[in-house]
From TrEMBL:
Protein's UniProt keywords contain Flavoprotein: no
GO annotation (BP), single: trans-translation-dependent protein tagging
One family name in Pfam for this protein: SmpB
Major localisation: cytoplasm
Free-text function comment from the UniProt entry: Required for rescue of stalled ribosomes mediated by trans-translation. Binds to transfer-messenger RNA (tmRNA), required for stable association of tmRNA with ribosomes. tmRNA and SmpB together mimic tRNA shape, replacing the anticodon stem-loop with SmpB. tmRNA is encoded by the ssrA gene; the 2 termini fold to resemble tRNA(Ala) and it encodes a 'tag peptide', a short internal open reading frame. During trans-translation Ala-aminoacylated tmRNA acts like a tRNA, entering the A-site of stalled ribosomes, displacing the stalled mRNA.
Molecular function per GO: RNA binding
Keyword Plastid included in the entry's annotation: no
Entries under Gene3D superfamilies matching the protein: 2.40.280.10
Gene name as annotated: smpB
Family matches, as NCBIfam families: PRK05422.1, smpB
Subcellular localization, as worded in the UniProt entry: Cytoplasm
Keyword set, alphabetical order: Cytoplasm, RNA-binding
Name of the protein: SsrA-binding protein
A Gene Ontology term for the protein's cellular component: cytosol
Length: 157
């Protein structure tokens, strides 16, 4: 008898919620990650963080800087684990060229939005972003509060 594959829990490993608040998102990309075995085990346990993380394009390769994957005690006994090491992103050359050219424009940068599972692989959703001004952040917060209030009113009636 074949085993049934069920979607146990969410496929999202970590999100960068601060990025959606701090930046206007222009374009998104999906990239693979080059990881070690202990990092995969830690991600399955939910030990990954994307706060204050950014993307660097160097020598035609994309790198994820500032992400933190806490090593498990049981998984990394024989390896010296560096939780905040630089990890390589797997993208097509055209995508890397597009990201590089857009990040050279003033006010643009590239940040990761989330890490998630796609079948048995870890993928990273990247975004080309522009920084928000203070009044844009206030408008975003006001709209979020109004949507929350609308939802409360709809539930009450």
């Amino acid at each position: 008898m074949a085993k049934k594959k069920g979607n146990i829990g969410s496929s999202t490993i970590a999100q960068n919620k601060k990025a959606r608040f701090e930046y206007h998102i222009d374009e998104t990309f999906e990239a693979g990650l080059s990881l070690a075995g202990w990092e995969i085990k830690s991600m399955r346990a939910g030990k990954a963080q994307l706060t204050d993380t950014y993307i660097l394009i160097k020598n035609g390769e994309a790198w994820l800087l500032g992400s933190h994957i806490t090593p498990l005690d049981t998984a990394s006994t024989h390896v010296v684990a560096d939780p905040s090491r630089t990890r390589k992103l797997l993208l097509h050359r055209k995508e890397i060229a597009r990201i590089f050219s857009r990040t050279q424009d003033k006010g643009h940068t590239c940040v990761p939005l989330k890490l998630y599972w796609k079948k048995n692989l870890v993928k990273c959703e990247l975004a080309l972003v522009r920084g928000k001004k203070m009044h844009d952040k206030r408008a975003t917060e006001k709209a979020r509060d109004w949507n929350r209030e609308k939802a409360r009113i709809m539930r009450a009636h």
